Amino acid sequence: MLFIESKFSLFCYDLNLHHKPKGQHMKKPFLLSFSSLFASLLALASSASIAYASNITIDKSYVFASIPGSNNTAAFMSITNNTDSQIALIEVKNSLDVPSEIHAHTKAESSQTNSKTQNPHPSAHMIKIPKLEIQPHSQIELKPGGYHIMLIGLKQELKVGQEVDLELTFDNGETIELKQIKAIDRSSVLDTHKPHKQ
C-alpha cells in the first residue's frame, strides 16, 4: 500500500510541476484526497474481513499432549455460531498428517445397579459422529468428557508445548484454520476424558 501511495504522490508532484500557478493550492488537497480514499478502502476491506470471520468464532482451543503407551490424543475448543441458521462442523484436518474424527461422549446403562436406589450405573464411552451441529446464535464447547476432536495414530509422541494446526470445515462452506495450538498436560484440566483403547 505504501508503494502505491508513493506512486500517487509522484504523480501529483508531476502535475504540480506542469501547473505552477495553481500548484501551491492543489498539491496538499490532492494528496489528502487520495490518502482519504485509500484509508476508506482499507477500512472497508477490514470490516468485510471481520464480518466474514465473525460468522463463526472459535476460541479456547488446546490439545492434550499424548500419554505413554497411547498414539491417540484429543483437541478441544469452543465454537460459536453467530449466524441465523444452523451450521455443522463436518471435517477436521491437522498438521500432524493423521486421521481426525469428531467424537461424542455418551453414556450407556450398565447391568450393575445401586442397592439403595435400584438405578443402573451409566458407563461412559466415545463414538464417532459424522458432524457436530451448532444451533443459530449459540455456542458449543468441546471439552473432556464431551464432544472432542480425536487425532488418531500419532506417528510420534506429542509433547507438552508442541504445536498443532487444525483446519475446520463447516457445511455452510466456511473453513477456519487454527494455528499453533499448544499441547498441554491433561492433568492441568479437569479430565473426565478416558483414553481410547489401542
Q: What keywords describe this structure?
A:
single chain; 198 residues; alpha+beta; Immunoglobulin-like; 2 helices; 25% helix; LpqE-like; PCuAC_sf; Copper metallochaperone, bacterial analog of Cox17 protein; Lxx211020-like
Explain the layout of strands and helices.
Elements: H1 2-17, H2 20-53, E1 56-64, E2 73-81, E3 87-94, E4 100-113, E5 120-128, E6 132-134, E7 138-142, E8 148-151, E9 163-170, E10 175-184
Parallel strand pairs: 1-10
Antiparallel strand pairs: 1-2, 2-7, 2-8, 3-6, 3-9, 4-5, 4-8, 9-10
Describe the structure.
By secondary structure, the protein is an alpha+beta fold. The protein has a domain at 56-106 and 124-188: PCu(A)C copper chaperone (Immunoglobulin-like, Sandwich), CATH 2.60.40.1890. Helix content is 25%, strand content 40%. It contains two helices and ten strands. Strands 1, 2, 3, 4, 5, 6, 7, 8, 9 and 10 form a ten-stranded mixed beta sheet that branches. It comes from Helicobacter fennelliae MRY12-0050. This is Copper metallochaperone, bacterial analog of Cox17 protein. Pfam families: PCuAC.
Low-pLDDT segments, ≥5 res: 1-20, 40-52, 110-121
Strand % is 35-45%
Q: Describe the main β-sheet briefly.
A: 10 strands, mixed
Q: Identify the CATH architecture of one domain.
A: Sandwich
Oligomerization status of the protein chains:
single chain
**What do we call the CATH topology of one domain?**
Immunoglobulin-like
Net shape: globular
DSSP strand tally = 10
In DSSP terms, counting alpha (H) and pi (I) runs of 4 or more, how many helices?
2
Give the SSE string.
Answer: HHEEEEEEEEEE
Arithmetic mean pLDDT: 76
- What distance separates the N and C termini? 54 Å
CATH class categorisation of one domain: Mainly Beta
Helicity level:
25-40%
CATH superfamily of one domain: PCu(A)C copper chaperone
Category by helix and strand content: alpha+beta
Radius of gyration: 27 Å
Organism: Helicobacter fennelliae MRY12-0050
Pfam families: PCuAC (PF04314)
Protein name: Copper metallochaperone, bacterial analog of Cox17 protein
InterPro entries: LpqE-like, Lxx211020-like, PCuAC_sf
